[in-house]
Request: fold
Amino acid sequence: MKVGIIGAGQVGSAAAFALIMRGVARKIVLIDANPERAWAEAMDIAHAAPFAYANKVKAGDYADLCGCEVVIITAGANQKPGEDRLSLLGRNAKIFADIIPKAAAAAPTATLLITSNPVDIMTELALRLSGFPPCRVIGSGTVLDTARFRTLLGFYLGISPKSVHANVLGEHGDSEVLAWSNADGGTVQIDRLAQMVGRPFDAEAKADIDDCVRNAAYKIINGKGATFYGIAGALCRICQAVTTNEYAILTVSSHHAEIEGIKDLCLSMPSVVGKRGVHNVIFPELSADEHSALAAGARLVKQYTEQALSELSKL
Ligand code: NAD
Reply:
């Protein structure tokens, strides 16, 4: 399968590397406003391919997206230390107004996989700008945050993160909701499981995990300037679900006609992902606090989405 990546910066190139090393893509096309950068990343990754799978990576232009099953969009500004994701909106919306119509025309049957931040709002903009059906415009959403949550729960409980079922819902951002109430391991609710393994949660342990998930990007950006390996793993996992028509449940961001009473916005919920993108969305049972946190996040995302759409209409 062929994957296009628009934006060959830190996230785009790390995603291309992950796709090659895991054999998820047979061909990858890297496109960037800086063609020398795209060429250099493609060459560097191509030289790793013989150690993994005999797959092809090249730099290209929009015409080279023809036949792509997935086009990943990572073009745009990233967070600087202390900056939140919402502050990137103005800059990245202008970039999307340029690149999304070109990507949609070149790969009209692809699934668009949006990563540029603020990802939920950028996913809604990509949906409007592409004219694609909503199921084929998805954001990486909280797939990465969910992985962070499962990793920390696994460390704490001394079990594999792969055996933990726990999701982060809503915005990929400061308002995200860690759904503790339905988290489990081995079908046992996470609080009971923690008692069984002799590591009961107190409020402080939960607050520590919440802080490490919610503020992971800020902490990593303070240390190394950007985050890219975690998201690259998440993008690779989503591509695998699409290209193998896996029907995997992943917390991607997608368009909702209504969520917590707020209409027409993109947010992450557990979603069945396969060849046609999002095939179905699952609404888990949540506690009253989780419902109200999800509603607050939905209101925030809606407010910024409307602002971005109004600015786009003036371009
Ligand atoms: P980066 O600066 O390393 O790369 C961005 C690339 O986009 C650059 O190479 C730049 O030349 C290119 N670009 C800019 N305008 C373009 C255009 N019009 N056409 C084609 N290419 C263009 O940034 P990065 O660290 O790779 O981050 C990229 C985006 O991904 C940011 O918005 C960042 O916030 C986001 N991100 C999202 C997640 C997530 O979980 N969703 C995680 C990490 C980063």
